Amino acid sequence: MSKYTREYTIRMKDIVREGAKILRKVTDPVPLPPREEDVEELACMLQYLKNSQDEEVARRYKLRPGVGLSANQIGLDKSMFAAYYTDEEGEQHEYMLINPKIVSHSVAMTYLESGEGCLSVDRPVQGFVPRYQKIKVKAYDPQGNEVLLSLKGYGAIVFQHEIDHLNGIMFYDHINKQNPYALPPNVPISAL
User: Fold this and answer.
1) Residues 117, 43, 163, 179: what is their CA dihedral angle, to the nearest 10 degrees?
2) pLDDT (tens digit per residue) in 45-63
3) In the chain, where the domains are located
4) Which of 50, 83, 73, 74 is nearest to 158 (CA)?
5) How far is the C-alpha of 190 from the C-alpha of 192, rounded, in Å?
6) Of 82, 135, 186, 187, which cross-links 45 as Cys (Cβ 3.0–4.6 Å)?
7) How distant, in Å, are the alpha carbons of 24, 70, 140, 160 from that of 101?
8) Is 107:188 a contact under the CB 8 Å cutoff?
9) What is the pTM of this model?
10) 39: enclosing H helix or E strand
11) 50-82 burial by CB neighbour count: b if 16+ within 10 A, else e?
12) Residue 62 Cα distances to 46, 71, 117, angstroms
């Protein structure tokens, strides 16, 4: 049985840091319907994100704020992640997704002007991370139902960052090695 249940509070010591092999491995698919243990772990991951964005709780437990957390970031070899974020319109979103796959994406791209960060990376990383502006994602919810989600802007960036994790890719792998602030040529791209 996993220690990551609804009662467990994930702390920074639980977060796997860059250099760990599990962050470079393609995670294993979760058998469907998900087991109770998988659902508990996802709920625990989502609670970390909520705690990390609550100033008082974050200060008490010394949590770094996060908007997404993939299972391999807490040492679990499972293709699932939780996300909790506010989009450009100020709308709050929360997701617990299993076996997510990007099934289509726009040609147009976007990037965060401030750059991306990661709970598994303790150092500042300079540079732009180009992402698709719009994506469609097929995944399964905690009940094992298939869901098809259309995301754009910030939500699309959060999802691409987490799905990358599940495929063993770190955000800085997308940064241009010669010029960290270079953007892909011949592609419509705008900052967020």
Assistant:
1) 0
2) 999 999 999 999 999 999 9
3) 12-191
4) 83
5) 7
6) 82
7) 17, 14, 10, 10
8) yes
9) 0.97
10) helix 36-52
11) ebbbeeeeeeeeebeebbbbbbbbbebebbbbb
12) 17, 20, 17
Q: Is residue 162 flagged as an active site residue?
A: yes
HSE-CB for 62 with a 13 A CA cutoff: 4
Model confidence pLDDT, tens digit, residues 85-131: 999 999 999 999 999 999 999 999 999 999 999 999 999 999 999 99
Q: Residue 160: is it exposed, middle or buried by C-beta count within 10 angstroms (0-12/13-18/19+)?
A: buried
Residue 32 in tokens: 């469907």
Task: Output the six-digit token pair for 64.
Answer: 């770094």
- Determine the distance from the C-alpha atom of residue 179 to the mean position of all C-alpha atoms in its chain, rounded to a whole number: 25
Per CATH, the number for 12-191 is 3.90.45.10
Q: Name the catalytic one among 40, 41, 116, 162.
A: 162
For 163, the enclosing helix (H) or strand (E) is helix 153-166
| 59 token code pair | 């200060």
Q: How far apart are the first and last CA of the chain?
A: 41
